Amino acid sequence: MKNAVLYSLVGVGLALTLVIFWAARERAQKIPAVSTFAECAAAGYPVAESYPRQCRTPDGRVLAEDVPELLSVVVDAPRPNELVASPVTVSGQVPGTWFFEANLPLKITDSSGKTLGIGYATAEGEWMTEKLVRFSSQVAFESPSAATSTGFVVVMKDNPSGLSENEAEYRVPVRFAPRAPAGDTTLRVYFGNSQLLGPGQDDCATVFPVERRVSSTLAVARAAVQELLQGPTAQEKAAGYTSSLNPGAQVQKLVISFGQAYIDFDEQLQFQVGGSCRVAAIRAQIRETLKQFPSVEDVVISIDGRTEDILQP
C-alpha cells in the first residue's frame, strides 16, 4: 500500500515537471526574436522614455533607439509656416556634434534656395557632447523678391572638414511678411572732413555723417554700407568730405546678432593700404556707419573671414 502511494506521488511529480517544461517551451516559442529597438517596442516590451529611448526584452537585454541626427533636432522658433520678418529669432536644440567652437550656422533662403541672410548661434552650455544643446540667435535677411512669399529657416551642422558625409541641415518652412510699401529711407554714411574738425579732435579716427536716401529695404545696414563704399558725391567732395576706403571693395557677408555686427569684405578693402592713420579712418567709417542702427552696439570687421591679420598699419 505504501509503495503504491509513493509511486503515485512520483508519477504526479513527473507529470507536473513535464507540464511546466512544455509550458515554458511553448512560451519561449511564442516570444518573438528581437534584435532592434523597433522590434522590441513592436513586441510590446517596456520602453523607457529616456534619450534615446530604451526597450527591455524579457531576457534582460536593453536595446537603445537609433535616432538619426535630423530627428533629434528641435526648433522652437520659428514654428513651421510662421509669418516672419527680419530679423527673425531662431532657437531650439541640436546635438552638440552640430557645433564647432560653440558656433552653429544659420541661414534664411527663399523657396528657390536663394540665400537671403546668414547668421550664427552660440551654444548655451557645454557643446562638446552628443546630448542636445540649446541655441538662440537673431538673423537679419533681405526682403525676398515679389515672386515668392515662402522660404526656409535652415539650421546647419557646422562642417569645418568640408566633407559631404559630415553635412546635415534641418529646414523649417516659413512665410515672409509682406514687403514694405515702396518709398525712400534716409540713412547716414560717415566720411572724414578736416574742415569740420574741432580743437583736439583726431584727424584720423573722427568721421562725420552725411545723409543718403535709398529705396526702402529691410536690409538697411547693408544698404548703408553700400552707400559708404560708393564714396562721397561731387557735392560732398566740394564740402570737404573724403573717404579712406578703396574703390571697388565689396561686402561679402553682413550679419547682425545680439548687438554685434559681423561684416566681411574682400581683399580689395586693404589693397595697398598703409599707415596707422588711414587704417584708423577705414575702421571708423565702417564702424560709425553701422552703429547708427539701434541693433548694433559693436562691429567686427573681417577680410575673407580673417580678423587677426588685416588692415595692418
UniProtKB/TrEMBL annotation:
UniProt keyword Transmembrane helix, yes or no: yes
One Pfam family hit: Gmad2
Keywords, comma-separated and alphabetical: Membrane, Transmembrane, Transmembrane helix
Sequence intervals crossing the membrane: 6-24
Domain GerMN per the UniProt entry, residue ranges: 221-312
InterPro entries: GerMN, Gmad2_Ig-like_dom
Signal peptide region: none
Record's keyword annotation contains Cell inner membrane: no
Protein name: GerMN domain-containing protein
Species of the source: Candidatus Magasanikbacteria bacterium GW2011_GWA2_56_11
The organism's taxonomic lineage, starting at the top: Bacteria, Candidatus Magasanikiibacteriota
